[in-house]
Write a structure and sequence with these properties.
By secondary structure, the chain is of the alpha/beta class. It folds into 2 domains: 151 residues, Leucine Aminopeptidase, subunit E, domain 1 (3-Layer(aba) Sandwich); 323 residues, Zn peptidases (Aminopeptidase), CATH 3.40.630. Helix content is 32%, strand content 21%. The protein contains 13 helices and 19 strands. Helix 3 links the parallel strand 5 and strand 6. Helix 4 runs antiparallel to helix 8, helix 8 crosses helix 13 and helix 11 packs across helix 13. The relative contact order is 0.12. The model has no long low-confidence stretch (mean pLDDT 94).
Length: 484
């Protein structure tokens, strides 16, 4: 299903499209007299008394060809609540026979900036479906015309579309099956992003070996597919401005390796590359909206498979940082990919900050469910910025502890550290504590464990189930509010 948005200055009152108007939460329609005919106003005045006004959206049949739809707004309504209303609107009419709507942007007495833009943004985000591999597709198109003086500016329209495109690209990547989006294919797709103005560099097995990225390479050595580190650079400012860096875990399929996972739900491990997909979607958004910042996205792409050449429990490898790691469990692989990627990002790009994203631990789902991503950070200011951005777009984060006392749980007798805590407990924290050891120059850093947020069996406010795209809008908001 596709939703097409267009903008016009004026439209005839005689049109037979379904008209969408905004009213206050008590459904007082007196402000609508100038927007509809006298006959329509009289009819709605009668009918509204019979409707359940506890509902946010109420539709009235004016004729066999036309509806007038009222959307109620609270006096004090957040951007997120407006977006959610747009999503409710989509759900209400997605299976309806009607597919043409006209939104009067001047009908709202609520003067919130970009109200209509945010309403349609929520509607668009909710409309996403992944039907690439279905032989019978839903070919319905919904057409929405927005008219009036209170529609978004051209610049704001482009920004909304860039964020939607980036979020949808992330969802597309996460939704792909492992036999299609393996590391070789993933790396090829990232090269295609050059057309948006991104500088893309791909480091294959040979280059990674030469660089000494042995923790990343170790994860992928049991697969017939290659392993890669891919960097994507966006320069919206002069080159003297330090970039913001975003690093993502891209385990295209995670069997657990020699420490094999149980068969039940292993099919979900196609989304173990969601952290990398968020970084890719974000970088695409920044390029599309010509963001006035310098940013770099770095993703480690591997496939964790059992095989004759697979990494074994008990192996010791030397990371890019020079620190050695004892592999006690090959299913704690994401932190090994990120370890090399983090040190390389910090050393090569010398960024203002680093945010990494990963579906890293099941323990974070036990802690926070599917309401919050786990936030671990060495910097209070960056943490506050992420928390505030998350609240605004309803992609929430909850700060979890890091403390040097956790270090003893990952210290190894045979190497500098081990990749899991065998004592038990604090699974997400010890994973983050492990990652922190690879930030060598005290760069402000935050780790987002998105294991509970990247994929939803039942759907959420702005998605209909499956890949959520969580993180793209969060990081866009972080950048917009604090660094542009």
């Amino acid at each position: 299903m596709a939703v097409q948005i267009s903008y016009k200055n004026k439209i005839s009152k005689k049109n037979t499209y379904n008209l969408v108007l905004f009213v206050n939460e008590t459904f007082n329609i007196s402000s609508l007299k100038k927007h509809i005919s006298t006959k329509e106003y009289a009819l709605i005045s009668d009918l509204v008394k019979t409707k359940d006004i506890k509902k946010k959206i109420v539709a009235f049949d004016i004729s066999s060809k036309k509806k007038i739809i009222l959307v109620s707004l609270k006096n004090k309504i957040t951007i997120s609540e407006v977006e959610n209303l747009g999503a409710v609107f989509y759900d209400k009419f997605k299976n309806d026979k009607i597919n043409h709507f006209v939104i009067n942007s001047d009908s709202s007495i609520n003067q919130q900036r970009n109200l209509v833009g945010n309403f349609v943004h929520g509607l668009k985000l909710k409309s996403y479906t992944f039907e690439k591999y279905k032989t019978k597709k839903n070919n319905k198109n919904i057409s929405i015309i927005i008219f009036g003086k209170n529609q978004p500016s051209v610049k704001e329209q482009l920004k909304f579309k860039a964020i939607e495109d980036g979020t949808f690209y992330t969802r597309d990547l996460v939704s792909e099956p492992g036999n299609i989006l393996h590391p070789d294919e993933y790396a090829k797709r990232l090269i295609s992003l050059k057309k948006y103005g991104l500088k893309v560099s791909v480091y294959d097995d040979k280059k990674l070996k030469k660089l000494g990225m042995n923790t990343l390479l170790g994860v992928g050595q049991g697969s017939i597919r290659g392993s890669y580190l891919v960097t994507m650079e966006w320069n919206g400012l002069d080159k003297t401005s330090k970039p913001l860096a975003f690093v993502g875990k891209g385990v295209c399929f995670d069997t657990g390796g020699i420490s094999l996972k149980p068969a039940k739900f292993m099919e979900d491990m196609t989304y173990d590359m969601a952290g990398s997909a968020v970084v890719v979607g974000l970088m695409k958004s920044l390029a599309l909206r010509k963001a006035k910042i310098n940013a770099v996205g770095v993703v480690g792409l591997v496939e964790n498979m059992p095989g004759g050449n697979a990494q074994r429990p008990g192996d010791i490898v030397k990371s890019y940082s020079g620190k050695t790691v004892e592999i006690l469990n090959t299913d704690a692989e994401g932190r090994l990919v990120l370890a090399d990627a983090l040190t390389y990002t910090e050393e090569k790009f010398k960024p203002k900050l680093i945010v990494d994203l990963a579906t890293l631990t099941g323990a974070i789902i036990v802690s926070l469910g599917s309401e919050y991503a786990g936030l671990f950070s060495n910097d209070d200011n960056l943490s506050k910025q992420l928390i505030n951005a998350g609240e605004k777009v309803e992609e929430k984060v909850w700060r979890m502890p890091l403390n040097k006392n956790f270090d003893k749980l990952i210290d190894s007798k045979n190497a500098d550290m081990q990749n899991i805590n065998y004592v038990g407990g604090a699974g997400s924290t010890t994973a983050a504590q492990f990652l922190q050891r690879f930030i060598l120059n005290k760069t402000p850093w935050a780790h987002l464990d998105i294991a509970g947020m990247a994929f939803s069996k039942y759907g959420g406010a702005l998605n209909s189930g499956g890949a959520t795209g969580y993180g793209v809008r969060l990081l866009n908001k972080l950048i917009e509010d604090n660094y542009e």
